Each structure stands twice: as structure tokens, then as C-alpha cells.
Amino acid sequence: AQKITQTQPGMFVQEKEAVTLDCTYDTSDQSYGLFWYKQPSSGEMIFLIYQGSYDEQNATEGRYSLNFQKARKSANLVISASQLGDSAMYFCAMRELSNTGNQFYFGTGTSLTVIP
Amino acid sequence: DSGVTQTPKHLITATGQRVTLRCSPRSGDLSVYWYQQSLDQGLQFLIQYYNGEERAKGNILERFSAQQFPDLHSELNLSSLELGDSALYFCASSEPQTGGNEQFFGPGTRLTVL
Questions:
Q1: DSSP conformation class of B109
Q2: Is the Cβ pair A103, B90 closer than 8 Å?
Q3: Distance CA A64, CA A74 (A)
């Protein structure tokens, strides 16, 4: 089974609108971490936001918020007031502990295009 | 600019060869992570070092090895290269206090195996 599933290969959003990028995860651990990264066309990976499995409140970082629904095992990224510079690939990732240390799993990504 | 540097930026080599990728973490960061991003496999975690010691191992092939030196820079060695090793290799670093919750990625080394 996939550890991280991103079901939206591509998304479009109008500038200044909000957009939600979906992510579901699969783990039997009680303690894990969830991440979102942005990868612009230039190729670099940019950390956006982190949510710990024990965090009771949804994480927020500026215009980014993580809608964490533990029972559903979902960790959707919400980008508010989209900007043209938000056009990029977005990856959801999870950290869980294994017998070989922390393991990191990434989804296949969602390509977001912001339309002027 | 994340503060993480990687050299070289591009590398073209032939099958069967060996290459070394280098990473310098941000000042003060003790952890270094290596990732591979390819069209076939997507993003994969390879290995983590913390203050010179291997801390975690992911999907790293036996042909690959890494180390972290006393000055905290890290090298990823890829040997007996195959066409399928062509990928973008990222290094990331994190502060001790965050436990890896926030990782800063370098610009990557794009490896092409011909």
C-alpha cells in the first residue's frame, strides 16, 4: 500500500482564491509527522508546513494551513489567497519511525497552476 | 537560498562509473539527509546522518554509500552506475532542535548516466 497518496495530479486555481490539495497517508504508528513541500519549476524543494500526529491544532504558516483529520488519515494543504508564484509542484510527505530510524515517504505530487 | 550547498550542479557520466556528490549543510545544522528524485520512483529518502553518524537508512542501494565528515559536510558515493540511477539528488539539513521537522534542501545535483 502507498504510504502517501495524492490523488490530484493537476489543479487550477484563480488568483486570490483558496485551494485545497489533498493528501492521505497510511501508517499504524501513533507518532508520526506530516509535511508539505513546494517544488517550483526551478527544481528546488521548499519546506512549507509540518504537523505532528499529537498536535491537536492544525498547523498554519502564513497563507498555508494543514487540515489534519487524524481519523480519516488525511493531511490536506490549504493555500489561501493564491498568488501567481504559488504555481509549482506540491508534495505531501510523512515521517515515521522504523527499526532503521526515521523514514520519510513522499507522495507523487500535485501540480498547481494559478490563473491570473 | 536555503543555505545548503551541493556540488556539482550537473554530472554526466557513463554506466559502470563511480561519482561523488557533495553537500554542505547550513551553519549549525547537524543532520544531513539525502534524497533521490527520479521520474520512475518519485522522491525517495536514501539516508540520514547526524553529527557524523548514520542515523537512518531508507531506500539506499548497496552500490551507494554516504558519510558525514567532522566539519559536517556530507558525501554521497554512487558506484557501478546504471541508467536508472539518473536522477536529481537532493541533500537537506535540519537544526538539532527541530528533530528534522523542518528540512532545508539544497539545489540538488542532476546526475545523468549515459
A1: E
A2: no
A3: 16
Cβ proximity of B33 and B94 under 8 Å: yes
d(CA B51, CA A34): 24
Beta bridge partners of B113: B13
Query: Is residue A58 a contact partner of residue A86, using CB atoms and an 8 Å limit?
Result: no
Q: Does B89 touch chain A (CB under 8 A)?
A: no
Q: Is A108 on the interface with B (CB under 8 A)?
A: yes
For the stretch A15-64, pLDDT in tens is 999 999 999 999 999 989 999 999 999 999 999 999 999 998 999 999 99
Pick the closest to residue B46 from B73, B25, B70, B77 (CA basis): B77
CB B99 within 8 A of CB B56: no
What distance in Å separates residue B16's CA from the closest CA in chain A? 27
| Whether A34 contacts chain B with CB within 8 A | no
Does the beta-carbon distance from B88 to A106 stay under 8 Å?
no
Bond preceding residue A9 cis, omega within 30 of 0: no
DSSP per-residue letters across B74-98: EEEEE-S--GGG-EEEEEEEE-TTT
* β strands within A6-55, DSSP E: 10-14, 19-21, 24-25, 32-39, 46-52
pLDDT tens, A12-27?
999 999 999 999 999 9
